[in-house]
Amino acid sequence: MLPILGVTMFPYLDTVARRYPPVIVWFLIALNGFAFWYQTNLPQWYESKFLFEFALVPSRYFGQLHLVAPGGWISFLTNIFLHGGWLHLILNMWTLWIFGPAVEDRVGSFRFLLFYLICGIAAGLAHALANPNSIVPALGASGAIGGVIGCYARMFPHARLAVMVPILFLPLFFEVRAIVFAVIWFGMQLVPGILSIGETDSGGIAWWAHIGGFAMGWLLTPVLRRSTATYRPYYGDEGAFGFLPNGSREKGDRPWI
To answer: Domains of the chain by range and CATH?
Structure first.
């Protein structure tokens, strides 16, 4: 979901053809759902302690809390699967469902899982370094999913995304190229991220986690795609909805890798 000047762009369909079922995307959605169920069913007296241990508290690594309550590095991984509420979880999982299957299809399930975790860890590290004295637990899959968006945009820059923009009670539907969506999304993270530098409260949004995850996803993309020896390229007639296999309409639209 992409807010622009108070208006929300909600992607609900893409045009990239897929050959294999997205088993890792399904697994990640199920795992996030289970983790959220477990988190919300904790006793109230224990929940704060649980989040302090397994969400990401930057000050425990790079700030004053490091001296009295240093953190275990496992939280850079575990925070990826925790969420702050139902809306947070649903929006993250929906975005993963839109962008994840095409990326998993092209890179392979094991590589996709490893890539997702690396992007999530990089996102947490970027957030902690940008907010070293923060004592607020950071949690959520947004950074890892930002990496998936970055990879998708670099692999399929000319793919079309069908998006919905709600204007009051009237939904408007149109399409936008993946690279355009990604550039706007990244810009909407970068600007407030820069403005938040030095602040102790960033409004509850880990801007630098999104930035770090996206950057890692973009940078890792060239080494992710499987070779033709292990994965036959799509033929031109294997596209979806009248589009080419990479989601574009024009034959000259090629992936940027």
So the answer is: 2-226 (1.20.1540.10)
pLDDT digits over 158-205, tens only? 999 998 887 777 888 888 999 999 999 999 999 988 888 766 555 578
Alpha-carbon dihedral sign for residues 87, 90, 92, 95: negative
List, as one string, the DSSP characters of 177-246. Answer: EHHHHHHHHHHHHHHHHHHTTT-S--TT--HHHHHHHHHHHHHHGGGTSPPTTTSPPPPGGG-STTS-TT
Q: What percent of the chain is modeled with pLDDT above 70?
A: 92
Beta partners for residue 49, in sequence order: none
70 φ/ψ angles, rounded to the nearest 5 degrees: -60, 145
pLDDT for residue 254 is more than 70: no
Strand partners, 175: 162
Residues contacting 191, CB < 8 A, separation 6+: none
Cα 109 from Cα 32, distance rounded (Å): 17
Query: Which segments within the chain are labelled E, that is strand?
Result: 2-4, 7-14, 160-167, 170-177
